[in-house]
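Please check the following for our workbook:

***
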Amino acid sequence: MVKGLPQVVVPKEACKECIEYNRCVPTEAIEKLGIIHFGVYGHMKHEVLDIFKEFKCLVGVQSGRVIKVLRTYGGGEYVSNKFKEFCKSEGVIHKVTPPYTPQNNGTVEKRNKIMLNLVRCMLKNKNIPSFLWEEAISIVGYILNRSSTRIVEDKTPEEAWTGAKLNVTHLRIFGLLRRKLDDKGTPHILIGYHSTRGYKLYELESGQVFTSKEVICDEN
């Protein structure tokens, strides 16, 4: 691609120190926030430290617990001096997979693949503009957190986190056309849920996204 740079050979096997270190770190969580598998996707990679700080603060306040082990891919955004220093100052054990082997952080990679495949299908099935993919991936996460999983027996991830039974009667199909209340109403499609129990809608004519407390969708 370019000339003048020395050839760098990346070892296929981890060094002895890394192997010994990883043996001392648990691989399965036995309590909330015991181990966090963390990863970001797309243009957010350059914001990974700020995203993790915000996430750590949020889950810490909500649960009253602390993150003990953080497992990430060994990409440059996760091994910067600032990221290392933050984890060290907060008492977080940062477990890094070898570079160029994101598959070793399988939990994150598998979940990202599932979510992205669902997003592609949803956008294509409903002919939703591709620039709304962030809204689509947000609703995918919302639904998966309220769906059964093999990891948590007889509970959804949301119930396991909050301890409360969920009511999902508010769920609607992504991309449905909002029923117009009168002939003057402009058409909207449902693209997500708001944190205040409202719905996020995309107005077809103006291209704007806004929130509505209640919607009547045409499910026929």
About this structure: The CA atoms of residues 116 and 218 lie 26 Å apart.
